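Section handout 9: paired folding examples.
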Amino acid sequence: MRRLTGVLVWFFALIGTPAFAEAPAGLQFLESRLSSLANTSPGNIGIAALDLKTGELVAVHGDESFPMASTVKVAVAANYLAQVEFGQRDLDEIIGGQTASQLMARMLIHSDNHATDLLIRNLGGPSRIQQWLEQRNITGLRIDRNIADLLASKRDLYDVRDSASPKAMVELLRRLDSGTLLKPQSKAYLLRLMAQCQTGKNRMRALLPYGTPVEHKTGTLSGYTSDVGFITLPSGHRLAVAFFARSGGNRPATIAAAAKAVYDGFLYYLRSPFTTAYTTQYGTP
């Protein structure tokens, strides 16, 4: 494990060190940075970031439930593609006058709610998608309503229905990336659509270096903003990330800052020597 040096001790003293639950020693500076961001930003922030190669995790409020909003569409797409693999569905199937592939593109690229509900209905409703997740031992996510019903319900950002914890969301993403939920062809199809996401350009992507590969899905409700997906570092390391922001002001900016902190933190941690890269960015105190 990389040794923390005086510059990191100075960093902890500057921003305050929380009690760390899961970050490895070399990434505790990042968890501290994210905790500081969450504590100084109005509202309620949940973050999880997982290195898909090493399994190293950083989380803030990682076990707390947040609304999924439109990030649930990743699970809807995954369920449909899994059924295509088993011959129970077809991407050329006509649903509501359009092919399933057209609906999936509208759902993931433009976050079309009607397209999503057509797919959910075709799959047998929210309970069938929930059953599929539970059969694969994916816990911490709840799919209770279709999008129309969710939007028609009285807004409660602490409702456990249709919710996920940040850690549960990155576990779903990890399982998708690892090939345990989808075969390589289906996984590649899903990631291609997520890479074209047109919503929330002021969130995860906003502060990352130009050209950084990102496959993601956003979610939005009144008083709530989220963004989940994958970030690829220059080293080729892929991160599964989930950013949930409830209440407070300028939530997209908070997510953008958190995503940049995650990108920088993992990038510097993976460089050798770690402290050289870190002091280059922040200067020697």
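Moving on to protein 2 of 2.
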Amino acid sequence: MRTYLLALVTSTVIFCGGLPPQTAHAAIAAVVVDRVVAVVNNEIITLSDLQREITFRKQENKLNAQDDRLVLEDMIDRKLQMAAAKRSGLEVTDQELAEAIEDIMKRNKLDRAQFDAALAKEGLTFEQYRVEFREQITLSRLFNKNVRSGIVINEAEVRAFYDRNPKNFSLPLEMRVRQIFLPLPEQATPAQTAAVRTRAEAVYERAKKGGDFIHLVREVSQGATASQDGDLGFMQRDQAIAEIVEATKQLQPGEISAPFLCAGGYNIIKLEELRTPVRPFEKVKDEIMKALYEQKVENTYRSWLQTLRGDSNIENRL
């Protein structure tokens, strides 16, 4: 059920009247050690309020040991926002709250007893849940009105971001290579292997001296790629077979590798082109729009929150 709640645990008022003397003294002592850690306009946040919030966040694994001051700042911000909601008439009525809770129970297929039991497992009473859930709905309304409602992202902004940040949308490096392949006979003898290697080296020397590589492919290459002028097309360098990666890693476009043994024959590779392709705009448009929207939401929220703080009397005593 906590997924429906904010991280606020409502303060519990301790009534001492009618308690046994020892219990009353203990309760009074608890009040004495408590103190005000922040004043927000005419409202206060006590140390016990803060400690309950810290305890809850630790239980939810949302807090590091050094975050106490940040937690208090969050609590101050919530008080400011709840006051703003009240001024704007955005508070949730009892009827609206009852309907929202009823909807949650229906969607989770829980009756009231089961719902209360689920809350108890989270350390909450139904009344505590009502307080927290009312605040959650109220803050959501306030946020939508003052932050989300004025934010628009148009395609021109998205396109401009795409054009300014090509590296954000780059795909892995690709290379285009051509191959001359001279196969070895099946179960080649050392002499046959040496003969094919000698031939490959001769072809390599011709290519190094400026021989037209495609012409050499057509003249001597065998295998499946010969009919394609040896073109292996573009391939991601990190996904090519190890021998081709090794043969090309020191090459610049236009350069040719020495013969190397691979796939049952000697290969000579020419690195034709290197490129870093970019994901098409249409493929990333929605992703960019979402990122820009979230960024604007964050910036607008921070600016609005600063305005609330500037218009308020805040005293942090922690």
